[in-house]
Amino acid sequence: MINKQLPRTLAFLLLVIIFHPAAQAQEQQWIPLFNGTDINDWIVKIHHHETGDNFGNTFRVQDSMIQVRYDQYGNFNDQFGHLYYKTPFSHYHLKLEYRFVGEWCKTAPSYTELNSGVMYHSQDPRTIPKEQDWPISIEMQFLAGLGDGKPRPTGNMCSPGTHIVYQGKLDTRHCINSSSKTYDKDEWIKVELIVLGDSLITHIINGDTVLQYSKPQIGGPVVNRYDPKQKQDGKLLSKGYIALQSEGQPIDFRNVMILNLEGTPPAR
Q1: From 19, 75, 95, 198, which residue has the greatest number of CB atoms within 10 Å?
Q2: Any idea where the domains of the chain sit in the sequence?
Q3: Mean per-residue pLDDT for 179-184?
Q4: Confidence (pTM)
Q5: Going by CATH, does the domain composed of 30-260 fall within 1.10.260.40?
């Protein structure tokens, strides 16, 4: 005898599977932010230059990589630059690879040697005046060893015009070191950044979780000559732009991908 309720039960179970959060997560796909051929989906902002001016061809594409170079510069003149993806994000999992290459620009500040990063929750580059030096943002900082035998971790947190909550307390230090080991120049490093709005932030280097913190918010120094309307100290940052950094050291970026985590509940 055929159970007439069985088809209904199967249909119900199928709907549960389809709409279950785990099933939905499996359907989410990694989206390339960099298409491997051009940076038309990105916006350049370099200190001392108007938004959109890619001074000195600083950001360029070759061999399916975004390259940062200074061969068309004279004096570096604090021309710190950032390459912003065109769309802001809130909850996401970002992954990319980077490697430091070439010779550091000797007229750049000494701290920029083998130093770069990716900014997130950044202000819109179109709100940055010509003479503002750094974007109001949080930085996942990339470093390499200087060959002196001293540890120099990568995947650190730096905070131009911002603060974070670290180990349960508001932390106003400009940079906090991660627990990563020291990596060398010319070595490809795999980076992951998991951002849950204004909740938990996780830094991952070569598969290892190296730093976690929460509640990114506007506040503090380092950013100069900004539009006061953009710096509302104490305001939590739940979304913003992602940007690759240029500050004096040639670097290559590749495989820049994002997984949208919108709808993920905040971490407790």
Answers
A1: 198
A2: 30-260
A3: 98
A4: 0.88
A5: no
